[in-house]
Design goal:
Blueprint lengths: L21 H22 L8 H13 L8 H7 L16 H7 L1 E10 L2 H13 L4 E8 L2 E11 L2 H13 L5 E6 L2
Antiparallel strand pairs: 1-3, 1-4, 2-3
Length: about 180
């Protein structure tokens, strides 16, 4: 014989554990942050301005204190001569900027390459732009390098013009100043 369960009740699953909902936790976080910010603000406030009675009392205290010492070096300074003494070896200054310009030539380095083919390619690009370029070999610590130079230029203006022309063709340059030989 089989027995049937007629009045058996279905069990309900256990209710989920009651925790704090995310929104409630967010609200508590915002509220506690605002309270903390208010406390920090109140502690960093400057002291309130003194009342006129307190200010008058402090003024009388200042008057009873000894007066500050008078400094007399201001008077002494105004009586001193203001022209510096001329040294015996003093020679009038020449226009050093113009003199340096005359004794300096400018070069643009348009690249440094390990292969002569790459250096010749860069030289050809510069020649197509109308710039005088040359390739010089250089033995460095990392081996033989081929540097591409544009110039020499007598003035900064000429060098700047050539540099703008090279930059407009996406060729980066490095300015070199050398003494005139």
């Amino acid at each position: 014989m089989t027995t049937t369960k007629r009045n058996a009740q279905r069990r309900k699953s256990a209710p989920p554990p009651q925790g704090i909902s995310p929104w409630r936790a967010y609200a508590w976080g915002v509220a506690s942050g605002l309270v903390l910010a208010l406390l920090v603000y109140l502690f960093t406030l400057p002291p309130k301005n003194p009342t006129p009675q307190e200010q008058a009392a402090s003024n009388t205290e200042q008057k009873t204190q000894a007066p500050a010492a008078d400094y007399i070096f201001y008077d002494h300074l105004s009586k001193q001569p203001s022209t510096p003494p001329i040294s015996r070896n003093h020679q009038p200054r020449r226009d050093t900027a113009a003199e340096n310009e005359r004794n300096t030539v400018y070069l643009l380095q348009a690249g440094s390459f390990r292969q002569t083919e790459d250096a010749d390619r860069r030289r050809a690009e510069l020649l197509l732009l109308g710039l005088e370029a040359k390739v010089e070999a250089f033995n460095g610590s990392s081996g033989r390098l081929y540097r591409v130079y544009v110039g020499p230029f007598d003035t900064r203006r000429e060098m700047s013009k050539a540099r703008r022309l090279a930059t407009s063709s996406q060729i980066e340059t490095l300015v070199l100043k050398r003494p005139r030989s």
